[in-house]
Amino acid sequence: MKQLIYTLTLLFCLSTYAQKPERGEKMSLEQRAQLQAKQMQLHLDFSAEKTPLIVEVLEKHYAQLKNLRRDKSAKSSFDNRMALLDLQIALKKEMKKLLSEEEFDAWEKMRKKKRKQIAKGARNSSHKEKHNP
User: Fold this and answer.
1) Are 29 and 64 spatial neighbours (Cβ–Cβ below 8 Å)?
2) CA dist 123 → 55, 68, 70, 84, 119 (Å)
């Protein structure tokens, strides 16, 4: 009887163990920047001449972001958060230079919407984990 209970418990634990889904191949910084610039061109309807400039700004931003995430050794969470905010401010200034006022406003709205979706997804996933045994 003990062996049956032990076996059933083990089977239950193994069957409920969830693996993280694979997210596919990782994109390079250049690919991410190009994809983001194309999406911006589609949604903001800016000229094709701006695309290479925006790709350059995004590549620089993604590289700095990657370096910031990689270099967490001696910094506190406060310092990391401040550095992240500095990067976001710099990106915003660069985009303000490149985009017209209407395009910039639309870009800001697009970013806010994306952040809400990401936050909502994070809440939903944590909510599912708490309530699914």
Assistant:
1) no
2) 31, 25, 26, 22, 6
Q: For helices 77-98 and 101-131, what crossing angle results, to 10°?
A: 140
Please give the Cα distance from 19 to 81 (Å, whole number). Answer: 30
Residue 45's region, left for phi above 0, alpha for psi from -120 to 50, else beta, is: left
Domain boundaries, the chain: 27-100
Length of the chain: 133
Q: Are 98 and 54 in contact (CB under 8 A)?
A: yes
| pTM of the predicted model as reported, rounded to 2 decimal places | 0.66
| Residue-by-residue DSSP string for 24-74 | -PPPPHHHHHHHHHHHHHHHH---TTHHHHHHHHHHHHHHHHHHHHH--SS
Give residue-wise pLDDT tens across range 27-69.
Answer: 888 888 888 888 888 888 888 888 899 999 999 998 998 888 8
**In angstroms, rounded to a whole number, what is the distance separating the alpha carbons of residues 84 and 78?**
10
